[in-house]
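hey so u asked for the seq, here:
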Amino acid sequence: MKSFATLFLVFISVVVFAGTADTVSIYSNAMQKSYKAVVVKPDNYSSVKEGFETVYLLHGHSGNYNNWISRVPELKKYADHFRVIIVCPDGSFAGWYFDSPIMKEMQFETYVSKEVPAFIEANYRTKKNRYARAITGLSMGGHGGLYLGFRHADYFGACGSMSGALLIEGITDSRYGISKLLGDTSNADVYRKHSIMHEMEHYPKDSLAVIVDCGTEDFIIGMSRLVHNRMLELKIPHDYTERPGGHNWKYWSTAVEYQLLFFRNYFDRNAGKQ
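ran it, structure tokens below
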């Protein structure tokens, strides 16, 4: 009986200290279409009057808005533990989180950096300040996290990448869809302008908290190393970590907890500016 009672209390504590997830539909004026998103709220969301910091968490190539919460249900626990709202928007099968100059129906920079946040801040209790916002993601979303973080540093105060597909100039396989968005790879200038390698040259005056990590067995770890080394050359402050792991959910389910801790520490350091 005692062991049953203990088990019951453990079960109750898990229920009490876990966030809740909403699925919402967010319309894009830029693309004239609605996409779904998952919004994970801390358990105490309804009882706390002040706003919460927000982390935008991007999926990878061939994924969708539901990937993170379905593959890493611990996000509900993390939202509660780190006291943040986690937003998982849709970046399409191969949207790459930039605005395509040749496909009007693929404007995922505008959608994720402006339209989704506008919806979130109109419908959820968030702190409306760059020091209370972060953006990161895995693989394709890793490029999106850094690319949008640097390009919109007036909006996001922190950004990150997990196993990022960061060197889009080198991703020439048509299966990944970049050439459909940017045109033939012979137009090197267009590719460069849509790459984090270019955006790093414009480090924001107000600073930006940056975290990059990748698994040592990941087949694209060279991209993270290249970005890391370029940031060192440019003297851009950042956290860089390599840990055992491949390009898979086993790695990302661990990596996201480290990144959320990084963002939580960033939010706490800047609490007086929010």
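Confidence is low (pLDDT under 50) at residues 1-16. The CA atoms of residues 53 and 132 lie 5 Å apart.
lmk if thats what u needed
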